[in-house]
Structures are given as C-alpha cells and as structure tokens.
Design brief:
17 strands; alpha+beta; globular; about 25% strand; seven-stranded mixed beta sheet; single chain; Metallo-beta-lactamase, Chain A; 10 helices
C-alpha cells in the first residue's frame, strides 16, 4: 500500500468517525429538567430572590368567572395558551441585610408532585431554612402555606410566621370550618394543619392593617381574594416592589381585562376592585410588581394599553 493509499484510508476513517460519532451524540436521552428555579434582582440595597415551587395546571375555563367563554379562549390564544394553563407557584425571599424574610412558602405536598420544589431551590439559591427570620403569608390558601411543614414538622425552625389577623380569624376558626360547605372544608383544614404547629410553638404573630414589619418591608391590606389577603411592599433607595400575592392568577386574561375573577375569590367583586386599583397604580407609578402565579420569575412592570394592561417581564440580569 502506497503512502497516498494510507492517507486516503485515514481520511475515510476520520470522516466515518465524525459522521457516526455525531449521530451517536445526538441520540443521547433527553434530560427533561430545568435549571434550579431561582432568580435574583437588586432593589436598591435589598436583594430579592424568586423561588419557584414548581407549576400546576389551572383549568381556566372552569375557574375564571365574569368572562364569556369565547373571550376567554381568545385571550388564551393570543398568548399561545390553551385552557389548561401551566401556572407558576412563586415565593419571594427578601434579604434586607439584617433580616431574611420569605413571602409565602409554596404548596408543599398539597398540590401533587409537580410542586413542592421550594426547599431545594432555596438551598440552590444559597440559603438554608434555618436562616429564615420571618415568613409573611399573603393568604392561607394551600399553595401559599403548604410549605410551612416538611414531613409533618416545622420547616423553618427559627422563623416567626406573620399574616393578617383577619386572615387568621377566617381560616384558623373551627366554627368557620364546621359551617363551610363540604367541598370547602379541606381548605380550612389545610390552613390549620400548616399554621397550628407555629401557633403552638409561639411562632405565629398576626398583624392588623397596613403596617411596617421590618425596615423596608410593609404589609398592605388587599382583601377580596380572601378575607385578609395582604400584599407586601418592599422599598429601598427610591425603588419599590409590590408583591401582589394572588391579586391575579392568569396573566393572559386578567391583564387585558382586570374585571375577570376566579372561583377561589371569597368576595369576587372586592377582588376585582382591588385588582383594578393596584394595576392602575403600578402602571402610573412604574413600580416593580411580582405575583405568585405570574410565569416564573414573576418580576416585571405594567403598561396601560386602552382599558387594560400589558405585563413587561424583567429583563434578564446576571447581577455582575
């Protein structure tokens, strides 16, 4: 065999290896997982971290009210969504420099296997449960308080849990649970199961009305979705972030039409009025806003368009 023959043979072998090697790599199994679910932004001197608890399907057609089915379908279609909307469950970690505050705790085990990711994402974000000083609850629905316990034990051993007194009076009342319709009793029981261990340990401290809880963070009453539904406002160096809780649920429908309500509302008329008020305020003032069920990471601004609004998500920052 001549040198040219050997060179031609080597070249053919290399081409074969490159061709079929590339094919073999492309056939690797799909991973079907995401990166850890946390996202940070700075608000003045305060660090805010969104923590994803996961997602769950929300059947908009069955749950959204005060909207015609055709309008609902059209609203979802404009955002390339169908009736079962994969809905984020977001919680927010506030590091003021002297206090570490968690707003809501996710669903824990209450909403199935697609949620309950918050503890892992908290650790991935560089924090441990025992570092949390205070936990602020927007309201006591299961997807906001379900993470207070892990394996039946207090998940945040050094934290004081805070919520509106009106919310506590509503959900932690056995007489209210006894008087509730059969299909609503589970909500009361879940709230009691999650909060009562903190109550028994002297770690539950409710508040009344609008009040500053730690420097830079204050509670703002926004009842309607529930009796004591509360927003939390964070301010530092002239910047403001309003954590809406469940002021809204389906962005594709409720931003264009804030009058749309949801069956989970305790008082849907009041809930719609709160939504209209705070949507208008956010758009007028240019505040940062975030909500538990906005697509992760949930931060953004509102821009008024006609009689509705457009949500402008946060522009990704690597926080150099």
């Amino acid at each position: 065999m001549t040198l040219n023959d050997r060179l031609r043979g080597a070249a053919a072998t290399m081409a074969f290896t490159l061709l079929f090697g590339a094919t073999a790599q492309a056939s690797a199994p799909q991973q079907k997982t995401q990166a850890p679910g946390y996202y940070r932004m700075m608000l003045g001197d305060i660090e805010i971290t969104t923590l994803s608890d996961g997602t769950f399907p929300l059947e908009a057609g069955k749950l959204l009210t005060n909207i015609a089915p055709k309008q609902l379908d059209a609203g979802l279609a404009r955002s390339f969504l169908k009736d079962s909307v994969e809905t984020s469950v977001d919680a927010f970690l506030i590091n003021t420099g002297s206090k570490l505050v968690l707003v809501d705790t996710g669903a824990g085990v209450l909403f199935g296997p697609t949620v309950g990711k918050l503890p892992a994402n908290l650790k991935a974000a560089g924090y441990r449960p025992e570092q949390i000083d205070e936990i602020y609850i927007t309201h006591m629905h299961g997807d906001h308080v379900g993470g207070l316990l892990v394996d039946g034990k207090i998940a945040y051993p050094n934290a004081v849990v805070r919520a509106a007194q009106q919310e506590a009076d509503f959900w932690l009342s056995k007489s209210n649970m006894d008087a509730a319709p059969k299909d609503a009793k589970d909500g009361y029981q879940a709230a009691m199961n999650m909060l009562n261990p903190y109550v028994a340990a002297g770690k539950f401290k409710p508040f009344n009305g609008d009040t500053e809880l730690v420097p830079g963070v204050r509670a703002v009453a926004a009842p309607g979705h529930t009796a004591g539904h509360t927003m939390y406002v964070v301010e530092s160096k002239g910047q403001k972030l309003v954590l809406w809780g469940d002021l809204m649920h389906v962005a594709a429908v409720q931003f264009p039409n804030p009058a749309v309500t949801i069956r989970f509302d305790t008082d849907s008329v009041m809930a719609a009025a709160q939504r209209k008020k705070y949507f208008a305020e956010a758009a007028a003032q240019g505040d940062w806003v975030a909500a538990a069920h906005l697509p992760f990471p949930g931060f953004g601004h509102l821009r008024a368009v006609g009689s509705g609004y457009v949500f402008v998500p946060v522009n990704y920052s690597a926080l150099h």
